[in-house]
Amino acid sequence: MDSALRTETSSQSSSPRLEPVMDIKMDDTASVDSGFASGNSSRSGLPLVSFTHAHLKYLNKQLESMGPMDILRFCRLLFPNLYQTTAFGLTGLVTLDMLSKLQAEQPGSQPIDLIFLDTLYHFKETYDLVERVKARYNVKVHAFKPAEVDTVEQFEELYGEKLYEMSSDLYDWIAKVEPQQRSYETLKVAAVLTGRRRSQGGQRGDIPVIEIDEERGIVKINPLVNWTFREVKAYVDEHNVPYNALLDRGYKSVGDWHSTVPVGEGEDERAGRWKGQNKTECGIHNKRSKYNQFVQLPQSVSA
């Protein structure tokens, strides 16, 4: 049988729940379902997206030589329930600007909403940028905070002060990984556009344009995967894209204020993230197995 990769969500329960449905079969000869779930399907709450391994490989080979605008045009047609996940970094802002131009080409088409993980610890400049982006692009931003809290004070009352120092992985789970998963479930996400690029280094050096996140049950699309930081910045300047004021102070990749510093001359683009720590990712693009220990969280975590 063909190797089928499928993502869908269940509409059988009262609250939306994301179910990864990744049927991996070894025979490469039989056909698989294509297209979307029918209206009679018990899982018709979300259109079905499915690929064979061979088809996914073929798509990535074709997309590899295409520019970001053409990749975005293609993905807007191919993927239902498509969102853009962003922390309002430069690459995400370029993607957003390109999407706005595509929306102007087809004003009646479905707009791509944004998913923003509000950890409560972003820089003031980042929150200011969010408001400027909303005003400039008239885009809907779905912000997801850590569960059951709205402020830093509430967060620290529940989990203690400086959890990000006491247990970095636990902080990542509470502030980023769980809110991300909740966003997928709440919005019934089938696919997301990300701002990941190979030139950012680390674990991103060999990512494809389209990849399957089997553990989370979604498709990830990296439309600017081949661009360098210089190309991204040149687009921002040419098209007058709003960007984080911290960029002009030596920052290239901006996350939480407690784990982001300016980048030195000659350093990698993401060298300012978790400086001095043995990590390059916060968990939202990692395998979930690393965070299994945090699935059943205690009511509070002592500092």
From TrEMBL:
Residues 82-262 form the Phosphoadenosine phosphosulphate reductase domain. GO terms for cellular component: cytoplasm. Its EC number is 1.8.4.8. The keyword Transcription regulation does not apply. Keywords: Amino-acid biosynthesis, Cysteine biosynthesis, Methionine biosynthesis, NADP, Oxidoreductase. Residues 1-22 are annotated as: Disordered. Pathway: Sulfur metabolism; hydrogen sulfide biosynthesis; sulfite from sulfate: step 3/3. The keyword RNA-binding does not apply. Gene3D superfamilies: HUPs. GO terms for biological process: cysteine biosynthetic process; methionine biosynthetic process; sulfate assimilation, phosphoadenylyl sulfate reduction by phosphoadenylyl-sulfate reductase (thioredoxin). Belongs to the PAPS reductase family. CysH subfamily. This is phosphoadenylyl-sulfate reductase (thioredoxin). The lineage of its organism: Eukaryota, Fungi, Dikarya, Ascomycota, Pezizomycotina.
